[in-house]
Specification:
mainly alpha, two-stranded antiparallel ribbon, 78% helix, globular
């Protein structure tokens, strides 16, 4: 009898673990089914859930900057003051220091777009309604490709085609070593862009899996796992910090990589 009860308890725990694992994988993976309020909404074949999150994120930013932001106010306050604070942070602490005054101000809109778009998607993903679009390597890879495009084509426009490739030739290196180092320098440019995509994707994916894995202990063990809620709350606030931090780091590294090819002499 005792063995039978133990077997039943083991089977029940295994079934719960399988259900929890399926739920976590469904939340962090892309699909055509979105269930914001428990009821599944089937999306058309041409639109995935993460694609929809991109549209919603862009709509939120357009609303913030197009309707709520009051650029004509002599003294900014409320949302306008908050948004301007982040804009000045990106322009004065990221764009200008790494690209110079002229190029930094010219490129500031790009870096502000990176920062606010990634931050918006990150903050959306830590709410129960929205899946984690930045936990999708395709999304972060597309953002990194934008950075790579500015690194390559922007560098060519800024310094010319010859000047662009000259930046990959180390100075004072013996000629035989150049045949080894120059291809590695060019390869390093693509590796930097890939690292941008993987860093953002991996951090957001790991954070969501950790939170859901901890919550799953409540589903499997019931009230015995109630103390784990304190750890979940701690991880949630850590994830909130990571949402801001990853948006800042992606923007910062994009400025560093672009600035290296815009001004190779430095």
């Amino acid at each position: 009898m005792a063995q039978s009860l133990t077997t039943q308890a083991t089977d029940l725990a295994a079934a719960k673990m399988a259900a929890v694992n399926e739920f976590i994988m469904h939340h962090v993976s892309d699909s055509h089914e979105w269930a914001p309020f428990g009821k599944a909404i089937e999306l058309p074949a041409w639109l995935s859930v993460h694609g929809l999150m991109l549209v919603i994120g862009a709509t939120i930013l357009i609303t913030l900057f197009g309707l709520i932001y009051r650029h004509k106010d002599p003294v900014p306050h409320g949302w306008t003051n908050l948004l301007e604070m982040f804009v000045l942070l990106v322009r004065n602490q990221i764009a200008v220091p790494f690209l110079g005054e002229k190029d930094g101000r010219k490129m500031a809109p790009l870096f502000c777009t990176f920062f606010f778009f990634i931050l918006c998607l990150n903050l959306m993903s830590i709410t129960p309604l929205f899946p984690a679009a930045t936990a999708n390597i395709n999304v972060t890879g597309a953002l990194a490709l934008v950075t790579l495009g500015f690194m390559i084509f922007g560098g060519m426009v800024k310094n010319g085609v010859f000047g662009f490739f000259k930046a990959f030739v180390p100075h004072g290196v013996p000629l035989p070593l150049l045949f080894l180092l120059t291809p590695l320098e060019i390869l390093g440019m693509f590796i930097k862009a890939g690292a941008l995509a993987i860093r953002l994707f991996a951090n957001m994916l790991a954070g969501h899996i950790v939170i859901f894995a901890l919550l799953s202990l409540l589903v499997i063990f019931g009230l015995f796992a109630l103390p784990v809620l304190a750890l979940v709350i701690l991880v949630f606030f850590l994830e909130l910090l990571v949402a801001f931090l990853q948006a800042f780091i992606f923007t910062l590294l994009s400025a560093v990589f672009i600035g290296q090819l815009y001004h190779p002499e430095h």
